[in-house]
Amino acid sequence: MKQVIVSKFGGTSMGDAQCMLRSAEVAFKQDSCVVVVSATSGTTNDLIALGKTAEKQSWKEAEILLTKIRDRHLKIAEDLKLNPTSSAELRNLFDEMESLAKGINLLKDCSVKAMDTLQSLGERMSSVLCTEAMNTVLRNNKSSKQAVLFDVRDVLRTDDAFSKARPITAEVERLCTEKLSFVKQGKHVAVTQGFIGKTADGMTTTLGRGGSDYSAAILAEGIHADILEIWTDVAGIATTDPRICPKAKPIAEISFTETSELATFGAKVLHPATLLPAMRKNIPVFVGSSFDAEARGTWVRREVKDHPLIRAMAMRKKQILVTISTPEMLHAHGFLFQIFKVFNDHKVSIDAITTSEISVSVTLDDSTLMNTKLIEDLSKFADVQVEENLCLISLIGNNINHTAGLAKQIFDKIGNINVRMICLGASKHNFCFLVNEDQAVETIQRLHAGFIENH
Ligand code: ASP
Ligand code: MG
Fold it and tell me: Which sequence spans correspond to the domains of the chain?
């Protein structure tokens, strides 16, 4: 039977008419059933700026942004020779954008709800355009298939945590079976939006920045796809960020677990949640470049052939180290419980952690400092110290916690760089430690040279 493929194209792959046609060509060659798109490059940022400007400033300033967003899409529409029905659809979206911005401006209030609907317009506009691009490519290739625009909100049911909504998987699956499985008959390609969803009572939500990858994975799970493809502007997952180490190499194959560590600990290739649905349903994920579809790309799978000790490395910038100590906890119990309860109450997620008898150190994104109440609450029962300007370095691979001498090798390679905290043991796939932000690049360069380039 024919494979069911869901392909997602990111913002740069939607950059202009030419990018859209190139992406559509890729989807055609792959014979994808569902094409999930991001907003055109820069549009989500512009829509956020529009919401904020309309809330805080005069209408004149908001209008400048409205025109900018409209013109960008009109230019693509013109280059693609958008058909009259779709042109009308695009104009409706422009009208909705203007009405929303006006409402925000009148009320001088841009709620998270309003912001989500405003941001949803980016994906809704790009999907109208991409449907045209897909149909052009299908026609040029004399395919009998047709591309249809599909409103993802009809199947992507979420909770009402606006701006970071969570998909309700069972509902998504039910709705996909009911409304999206027509793509399996091979007559249609559904072009749909990433990043957005809808609550049970019909409110538009977003899954958080960069959430289109996650949407595509949720849809792949929902329609029981055989393959999920993530098309971006780099040819797959690399051993590290090539901007830091020009000798970084593309990885041909990597396991789900290694990739989720890599995505969580700083590599920008995939939204960290993307792999959850793929892992649940064991759907292999391909990451490739829509600009260079012939390049090999990376396969992410449950089972892989090679299990190198160090496969890749990443850094997560803007980290803080919070150390919580109290001598009262000497030989007492419940200290960790008390601490984690505070983090839980504030919905703050901890990345790495080390403990001693009377202290616990955790790393957090520095944005959590904006919530001063968190530190205040911790300070009620312990002494709290915060160190800033740190960077979490992670080495990703296999058998890391069972390999004798690995720590020595790592610290030999980084030489005189001071290490602030080490996390080893919890995972076979990750070794991470903190360094000062201004030494992070140097640290990665030394490790990459030592573990990957010279191997
Ligand atoms: N357009 C959204 C963003 O820029 C979602 C995505 O691109 O994945 O965050
Ligand atoms: Mg993106």
Answer: 5-233, 310-453
Residue 144 has pLDDT above 70, yes or no: yes
Q: If one looks up domain 5-233 in CATH, what number appears?
A: 3.40.1160.10
- Taking the C-alpha atoms of residue 169 and residue 157, their distance in angstroms, rounded to an integer, is 8
- pLDDT tens per residue, range 156-202: 999 999 999 999 999 999 999 999 999 999 999 999 999 999 999 99
Contact 429, 396 (CB under 8 A): yes
Torsion angle (degrees, nearest 10) of CA 15, 17, 19, 23: 120
pTM for the predicted model, two decimal places:
0.91
Dihedral through CA 161, CA 165, CA 166, CA 167, nearest 10?
120
Q: Please, are residues 43 and 76 in contact by the beta-carbon 8 Å criterion?
A: no
Q: CATH assignment of 310-453?
A: 3.30.2130.10
Report the SS3 class of residue 408: helix
Instruction: For residue 391, report the phi and psi dihedrals to the nearest 5 degrees.
Output: -140, 135
* Helix extents (H) in 200-242: 212-222
Q: Over the stretch 345-386, which tens digit does the pLDDT of each residue have?
A: 998 888 889 988 889 999 999 988 887 899 999 999 899 999
Q: Which two tokens stand for residue 7?
A: 């392909």
| Token pair belonging to 191 | 């072009």
Q: What is the mean pLDDT of residues 112-141?
A: 98
Question: What is the 248 CA–ligand 2 centroid distance (Å)?
Answer: 22
Q: In this model, does residue 255 exceed pLDDT 70?
A: yes
The answer to whether the beta carbons of residues 302 and 314 sit under 8 Å apart is no
**Band of pLDDT at residue 330, cut at 50, 70 and 90:** low
Beta bridge partners of 315: 393
The count of other CB atoms within 10 Å of the CB of residue 62 is: 23
Q: Does the pLDDT at position 268 exceed 90?
A: no
The protein residues having their C-beta less than 5 angstroms from ligand 2 (an ion) are 10-11, 38
Q: How many CB atoms lie within 10 A of CB 353?
A: 15
Atom 2 of ligand 1 has which residue's CA nearest to it? 210
Ligand 2 center to 210 CA (angstroms): 5
Distance from C-alpha of 44 to C-alpha of 51, rounded to nearest angstrom: 11
Task: Give the Å distance between the CA of 15 and the centre of ligand 2.
Answer: 11
The mean pLDDT of 16-41, rounded to a whole number, is: 98
What is the token pair recorded at 376? 């205040």
Tokens of 188: 């249609």
